[in-house]
Amino acid sequence: MKKKILIIEDEEILGTLLKEKISERGYDVLLAIDGEEGLALMKSDKPDLLLLDIVMPKIDGFGVMEEMNKTKDLNLNKIPVVIISNSGQPVEIDKVLKFGVKDYLIKTQFNPEEVIEKIEKYL
What we know:
Helices cover about 45% and strands about 20% of the residues. The chain has a five-stranded parallel β-sheet, with helices on both faces. It is α/β, with parallel strands linked by helices.
């Protein structure tokens, strides 16, 4: 069975690019443009890994992680999370690591191949 990746990213061009690149590798990829939509997809589709932006409309990445951690659905809080963010601020990195995030990529400093490597590492 194909592994399912959920991307929660409000920058449509980046989200679409990542979806195409990851799909080419044989993964089933879902894309949400905000945290609210992402949480709904997480609950209905149970992804194997989450690529998560921090700064988004409606519910930001921190809100998504808080919801994942407080939910009674244990499957949600076991989903590996890789953050994709514009900010590389140490305070932000420390905050996401406290949520148990597996890894962190800064948008301006990665290419899609690195994202694939992270996916394969954590699945």
